[in-house]
Amino acid sequence: MHSHLSTDASLLQRVRWGAALALVALLLWAALAPLRYPTRERTFAFPHGAGFVPAEVRLALGVRDVLLLHNRDAVPHVFGQVLVLPGHALRLPFEQAGDYVYACDVAPGHFVTVRVGDHPDPGWGRLGWRLRVLADAVRTLPIEGPEG
Fold it and tell me: For residue 61, what pLDDT is reported?
């Protein structure tokens, strides 16, 4: 009976070590793997009706350095000095890191800050960048209830 308990504890310990090693391998990959994306655009959509528009957008040079303004609404919207007509899209490229503030008629406070960062270097910078991208993706997931 005693050997059965020690076998279970040994198995549990091996599973824990395996999970820990898998987590370390994942973090190393996230910190060191090259950044590859099919497009360098980040979409900023004007939703149909009264929808959510973020007050801040983050871009990274060489990864996400083009802001795609897409008007899905039935009325025109202003972004900076640009009028985006209904159903149209406009690309704003960025070539330098920095904070850019644009007037926006539907944003909280009527301003949107575009934060353009340098290309994330391998290591902690790249790991932090990937974690922020993941957090933004989860935060902006559309919430849909079950269809009834």
Answer: 86
Higher pLDDT, 71 or 5: 71
Q: Residue 64 carries which DSSP code?
A: B
Each domain of the chain, given as residue ranges in start order, spans 41-139
Identify which of 145, 120, 144, 132 has the alpha carbon closest to the alpha carbon of residue 36. Answer: 120
Residue matched to tokens 């528009």: 53
Among the listed residues 53, 50, 62, the one whose alpha carbon sits nearest the alpha carbon of residue 97 = 62
Cα→Cα distances 141→19, 30, 132, 134, 135, Å? 28, 22, 14, 11, 10
Q: How many CB atoms lie within 10 A of CB 101?
A: 10
* Reported CATH class of domain 41-139: mainly beta
At 94-142, the pLDDT tens digits run 999 999 999 998 888 889 999 998 888 888 888 887 888 788 778 767 6
